[in-house]
Sequence to fold (316 residues):
Amino acid sequence: MKTVSIIIPCYNEEPTLNILYNALVEMSDSLKNYKFEYLFVNDGSKDNTLNILKELAKKDDRVIYLSLSRNFGKESAMYAGFCNAKGDYITTMDADMQDPPSLLPKMLEIIESGKYDSVATRRVSRKGEPPIRSFFARLFYKIINKISDADIVDGARDYRLMKREMVDAIIAMGEYNRFSKGIFGWIGFKTYWMQYENIERVAGETKWSFWKLFKYSLDGIINFSQAPLSVASWSGIILTLFSFIFIIFVIIRKIIFGDPVAGWPSLVCIITFIGGIQLFCMGIIGQYLSKTYLEVKKRPHYIIGETNGQDIKTIK
Ligand code: UDP
Ligand code: MG
Fold:
């Protein structure tokens, strides 16, 4: 009998956990020829999440909780799940029912057909989302697909059923700055895309502010593209060429017309313009450097403080 591991990162998900758990049980009961493992990763929640998980674990031995020592962020929580999932098929799932468990039987059917290594889901609409957020999300996908060689699909969710081999590849991508949508695309494998309409969260609130999402999208760009670095060098080259032309122009004008001292305002404009570009480019380089700094320190991705699981890698 094959085992399916469902990784659920939870951060302050008190209101949603029981709803999700009931849906998971209902779905699992309809699939008699699979064993299930519900791997809840408590990402340093400040509410009652951990206690609810403990209660669930008491009455159901499919429930395994990994409780991180603090809030490490969804990416690290998922990584902790991947490193400790024992199943033949593995998926992550949000705790808020936005990744409907009811899609899983169909996903299993497709992956069992043997033609695909993973079944990924994609929202075709962004109904219920603030329009400004949708606008910037679309813009982000357009930009990143132009400048990165990893294929990053607009509307793709992290909800994706994968074979063991694929998850091993994800674990092997041990980078500290993680951007899963890029990692999934980068490792390749044959993926079937399933589409569904966006579903709003059943209870509680989103953990992503606009600012957090903005920073996350910049992370995605810096982690999967070197294009911003070429912006830095190209703008340097272009400006240098431009200034050469300008110098020649000024010299010739002086020789022919005997130019009086003038042009102070334009000089100030040029200096601030170039200063701005220099700082901007240094900022870009600094972004890459700071990422490199974090990578070379080789800090652990997550630290598990408490768990009911067996053979758990508590630090990795
Ligand atoms: N999450 C997490 N750690 C965090 C933020 C979020 O584990 O620091 C989890 C959260 O509990 C949920 C999933 O990531 O299961 C997606 O979060 P949310 O629904 O808030 O994001 P949205 O769907 O609004 O993008
Ligand atoms: Mg959500």
